Amino acid sequence: MVDYRIDRRSGVATYVQIVQQTKQALRLGLLEPGDKLPTAREVVEATAINPNTVLKAYRELEREGLVEARRGLGTFVRRGLNTAPAESPLRTELEAWAVRAREAGLDHDDVDALFTAVLDTHFKGDES
């Protein structure tokens, strides 16, 4: 199951954060086809957001063909995006790099800016 973390200061709409976090869990293989997403009620209790926001996010994921709502049962993953499994050698290398970045005195925003700059250099036009 995925635990949603809402950053109210990010400037990113709450429903978009839920969509992004769900997609991230799918990419990492933390959610797989057949897995059940938390109910809107569970997300609301954990994050103190409006239930309609959760439903909007789930509808967006359904529109993209990633999940399906089953009346009376919940919302289930239809397909994964796991091209970068959570337990991959690349993740291990990235973990080590993050440790070195922190030891070098970089904070979260510094690492985010540096990583985004590198991604933009190597993945121009590849956004999906």
TrEMBL record:
Presence of the UniProt keyword Transcription in the record: yes
Cross-referenced InterPro entries: Tscrpt_reg_HTH_GntR (IPR000524), WH-like_DNA-bd_sf (IPR036388), WH_DNA-bd_sf (IPR036390)
GO molecular-function terms, A-Z: DNA binding; DNA-binding transcription factor activity
Listed SMART domains: HTH_GNTR
UniProt keywords, alphabetically: DNA-binding, Transcription, Transcription regulation
PROSITE patterns found in the cross-reference section: HTH_GNTR
Domain HTH gntR-type per the UniProt entry, residue ranges: 12-80
Superkingdom of this protein's organism: Bacteria
tRNA processing among keywords: no
Matches recorded under CDD domains: WHTH_GntR
Name under which the protein is recorded: GntR family transcriptional regulator
